[in-house]
């Protein structure tokens, strides 16, 4: 399930239970250093805390904007209209990445992996070097996950977005 309204998820979980059907096992949500309201909010959080559902983090680079890129291609939706603030935050991500001795992409992925409900992280690459670099995030999350999350805590930019996905 991808970016569903929390009420639709609740309905689906109850329906599956009532009918003896398998329920969804993970939710694919936009989740990144700057976009956390749905994944860390109370609606999805209740399912994550009980272990009924895991999180598949998507759009972790915000179409490259979080990495300081200005993509000319179509990129994902911008709930909350925070894309210009994300552009401004890219320098902070690069600065924090430098302090850990890693790339901004490694830092962004490690941030997501260090959140307990995350089962996996979706990212796109166009070159083998990008894939190899991104895989370094697993090591960073394992060794410094809590520190990475603490260093980036102030960059949560979508706090005004409804955690239930309604707006």
Automatic annotation (TrEMBL):
Keyword Transmembrane part of the UniProt annotation: no
Pfam families hit by this protein: Aldo_ket_red
InterPro entries found in the cross-reference section: AKR_Detox_Biosynth (IPR050523), NAD(P)_OxRdtase_dom_sf (IPR036812), NADP_OxRdtase_dom (IPR023210)
Domain NADP-dependent oxidoreductase, first and last residues per copy: 17-146
Gene Ontology terms, MF aspect: oxidoreductase activity
Keywords for this protein: Oxidoreductase
PANTHER family the UniProt entry points to: NAD(P)-LINKED OXIDOREDUCTASE SUPERFAMILY PROTEIN (PTHR43364:SF4), NADH-SPECIFIC METHYLGLYOXAL REDUCTASE-RELATED (PTHR43364)
Protein name: Aldo/keto reductase family protein
